[in-house]
Amino acid sequence: MPSETKEHGAEEIKSTPAQKIEAPKARSKPTAVLAALGLLLVEIILPATAAGALLLWAFGSYNIWQIGKTNALVIFAIVMVVISLLLAVVLDSATASFRASKKMRGVRLARDPRTRIIKLALGGLVFPLVVFFAANYVPLATHGTVMNYLIAAATPPVRLTPPDEVGAIAMDTDNPSTKLLSIQVLQGFQSPEALNQLIRMVNEDSGALADPGVSDALSKAVAAYGVTARDPLLANFMSIDPKSPGASTGVKTDLYDRYFLQSFDSLETEITNETTDPALRAAQLAQLQAAQAE
FRET partner for 222 with CA separation of 20 to 30 A, picked from 20, 64, 184, 272? Predict the structure, then answer.
């Protein structure tokens, strides 16, 4: 009996089919998924951020904008995309070993080839262009864009000479006292630059000519330059159309007349004696008469 029982049990064991033992599927841990997602975001954002910072420094330190704003912006966009794409490829290669590690086993986001292509497209092309257009069109709180501030920082300030600064103050102000003081300062410079500013006021600043006190001070300031003031004033006279007196100049008072009160006759004599061409002499005399009519 015992032997029969053993033989029967052995037959049952042999007749029982071998069961396959399946290995449990690897499950991705939440921490691994979060790590893969964070790494993906870093690889998308970091290339454009680094490229933008590098170009902001370069374009802010060197006046590349002198080639023209449009040309500089095109170069900025192209270089930003190229640098971002290169950095995206470098980051992808640097993180490849981490994505293939045991910690990332089962995380499809870290191992899927399609995710890698999308990541490179976003980090190397799309996101850099988004940053570029945002820097150009999104206004800041101070009603300016990042690119406007960048251009202002890179453009060297225009350094005015003292006469230019005084002339700008005189032209910009509506206060007669400030204009009068500016004219006196320009008179004291006794330089060609200061004389140019006085002539500019004669031609462009109707407010200065409308005020009797300022106009008289301007007349005396120009007269203080003596013979030096003759050429620029004559240049203004030559710009007057004899058929339309006053059309080519901003002078609306007798400033020129007062300055040349003692000189119109001598100037007419000089033109008559020194100009041999009859047509040219007639034209110059007509211009002188038109200027005297002013």
Answer: 272
